Give the backbone structure.
Amino acid sequence: MRIDLHTHTNASDGTDTPTELMRNAAAAGLDVVAVTDHDTTDAWREAAAALPDGMTLIRGMEMSCEGRDERGRPVAVHLLAYLFDPDHADLAAERRRLRTERATRIRAMATRMADAGLPIDPQQVLADAGPSAGRPHLAQALIRAGVVASTDEAFAGPLSARSPYFVDKVDTPLEDAVAMIAAAGGVSVLAHARAATRGRLMAVEQIRELAGAGLGGLEVDHPEHGEQDRALLTRVARDHDLIVTGSSDYHGRNKTVELGRCTTAPGQLDAIVARASGVGVLVGGAPDAAGRI
């Protein structure tokens, strides 16, 4: 069984529509796919309606959070949330706040670029991005304007934290996010915690603390994790009885990573499903596949 628990659609910063993602997941030979867009559940309904017969859909989200590094400094961290109740009041309110933060940040960065003479229209960037705006949308605007040649070049230059155009945003404290997801009946899994190319890494000690505060698992097998990273996270997961997942972090054309690049063992998915009480899994062809959202 091939299980990919971390993918994105154009509801956030992927390029596939939810329908295209389901089609591409089937073509890639996946049996189970999770839709985990940034700070939004907007793709859930269309993905469920387009679910191929026999394929299982795990409804999720990737939440923008703040942790700390080894020196106690704030660091951006992403937390995957699976099978939570999307109508849970606290979590729904936090999703709305995070999307507002995203839009405010991208508008501010685009405005700084425009003020500096770059051919960027802040309003157009936001219109193209939709409700879950992120730096990848600004990267695409920079590519279209001929400022950079690729997403990697954009993130290494004008979108980097060292850039004069960079604007920070206020993310959810990790401990609060873990608690919210649990209260909404979901299971939290720390995403790509050792992806060093993204910036400073969160402290391993904080991962251990979160394990005692309700964290469900660790995304161990990820395209941006080396063998030492995977070994470290595996040890932490074993020490604290955490679920271990593997995922592609697929973004369509925005990243050169194919669906199913890294996968999750069936028993680990079973553990997620057993712990969740928010929403159930959906199976293509079942009577409630498109209706029980």
